[in-house]
Amino acid sequence: MEQARTSEIEIRHEEHGERGAFYVETEAGRLAELVYARTSPQTVVIEHTDVSDALRGRGVGRLLVEAAVAWARRTGTKFVPVCTYAKSVFERYPGLRDVLR
């Protein structure tokens, strides 16, 4: 499991088999997550991003996408975003698009 801490929000990463997630978790449970499915050794589909009301307005969704992009760059992984939120982040921030398939 990897971890990245950004402005007091700790983003964790887990991958089990063909499924994975970048997420924020507290004692109250998982408050935000970006969920993906691996379709090949070097390709994953970003399926869903969700941020609880407790974290909304703090840029947590974008932080999840940025953590996923950093991981993709380190591992040579490419993304196919089907999640509308993730798609919108890639559209707004062209500097992140190098990890798209």
Please state the second-level CATH architecture: 3-Layer(aba) Sandwich
CATH class: Alpha Beta
Q: Calculate the mean pLDDT score and round it.
A: 93
**What is the CA–CA distance across the termini?**
25 Å
CATH topology: Aminopeptidase
The proportion of residues forming helix, as a percent range, comes to 10-25%
Give descriptors for this structure:
single chain, 101 residues, alpha+beta, Aminopeptidase, six-stranded mixed sheet, 2 helices, 46% strand
Task: Give an overview in words.
- The protein has helices spanning 60-75, 84-92; strands at residues 2-6, 9-16, 19-26, 29-40, 43-51, 78-81.
- Strands 1-2-3-4-5-6 form a six-stranded mixed beta sheet.
- The chain has a single domain, classed as Aminopeptidase (3-Layer(aba) Sandwich).
- The protein has two helices and six strands.
- With 101 residues, the chain is an alpha+beta fold.
- Strand 5 (43-51), helix 1 (60-75) and strand 6 (78-81) form a beta-alpha-beta unit.
- The mean pLDDT is 93.
- The chain is 25% helix and 46% strand.
- The protein starts with a strand and ends in a 9-residue tail after the last helix.
